[in-house]
Amino acid sequence: MTNTRVVTLVAVVLGSIALFAPPFSAPAAAQDRPGPAAEIAAGWVGFADDGIVSEGMIGGAGRWYLLPRIAIGPEALYIRGSNHSHFVVTGNVTFDILSSTSGRPNRVIPFVVAGVGLFQTRETFPTGSFTSNEGAFTAGGGVRALAGDRVTVGVDARIGWEPHVRVNGFVGVQLGR
Fold this sequence. Notes:
Blueprint: H1 3-24, E1 37-48, E2 52-67, E3 70-81, E4 84-96, E5 108-125, E6 128-146, E7 151-161, E8 164-174
Antiparallel strand pairs: 1-2, 1-8, 2-3, 3-4, 4-5, 5-6, 6-7, 7-8
């Protein structure tokens, strides 16, 4: 299976989840919004080239809930490759597929996420450095689980532009209620 087909398959699966899961999830009934949260992440990024170019990433994100299941917030990533690096900043919208039950948050929360922003690449050559900037987007989904009263752990997978696939784990802390 070619890299383009893998990326297309991932996009179709995640897009289908995003389109069809919300109508089947339980309606929100007199729920409070969760408090803001901060997350740190680490993972793998595969760029489509003649093959998959694998690179590691670290990053962080914030979430502020506008509604009980819809949050917005920034995300910043640093991706390191050989003689180059990438810095990605996006503004994300997250939709929690499941709502809380009986006024208590679910222990496991699947979600979909999409973001737009800036993708910067810095390359180092023997003659000097070159930096380029372009627009960026990511879309995907994942799951986070409560690991304590205010702590979550999770995993997500996304596709994006500059063409890439990303899989990462994260740890989050709810900052308030």
